[in-house]
Amino acid sequence: MRLSEACGLLTSNIHFDTATPFVDLKEHPWRKLKTASSQRQIPLIGFSLWAAKRIASSPSGFAFSRYCNDQKCNSNTASAALNKWLKPRVPNGCAIHSFRHSLRDRLREVECPADIIDAIGEWTTEGIGHKYGAGYDLRVKHRWMGRICKKYD
Predict the structure, then answer these.
(1) Using CA atoms, how far apart are residues 52 and 133, in angstroms rounded to an integer?
(2) Which residue of 27, 35, 60, 153 has the lowest C-beta tally within 10 Å?
(3) How far apart are CA 43 and CA 145, in angstroms?
């Protein structure tokens, strides 16, 4: 998900009580979504599941209360802090948004079909036919994300 989407999460948007744990990404008054299709369910697996379990215990109800409250979401401050922390740890030119791009590369490495990659990353898929229907089920996205985890274990 985009950093701005993550910053505005509530702990109640994180669900562990299902066969496939997930983040229910939806718009809130303090944080809009980029597009209508940005509202989606994102599977939690591997390190994202580990992190979500830690985040879910936040007493404020906000996943990242340092950057968000019921009035506003300050993802620019979060981005600056993360990029400052990352700078000595990643190659020149990499930033927090680079992780979104590397997700696409990792899905390609496990031969994930392009339309499923687009569904996972909420990227636009070419052609009018791709806009029809409900899209891919959470379990399908989870299965492909699991292939990434197995590859990098």
Answers:
(1) 29
(2) 153
(3) 8
Cβ atoms 68, 54 nearer than 8 A: no
The answer to whether residues 43 and 16 touch, using CB atoms and an 8 Å cutoff, is no
Question: In this structure, what DSSP letter does residue 31 have?
Answer: B
- Domain ranges in the chain? 3-152
Closest by alpha carbon to 96, among 75, 119, 113, 112? 75
pTM for this structure?
0.82
Tokens in use for 34?
């980029």
Beta carbons within 10 angstroms of residue 127's beta carbon: 9
- 120 sits in which H/E element: helix 114-121
The closest alpha carbon to 45, from 137, 145, 121, 150, belongs to 145
- Written as one letter, the residue type at 66 is R
pLDDT of residue 21: 96
The predicted-structure confidence for 126-153, as pLDDT tens digits, reads as follows 655 555 667 788 999 999 999 988 766 6
Residue 149, CA atoms < 13 Å, CB-side half-sphere: 14
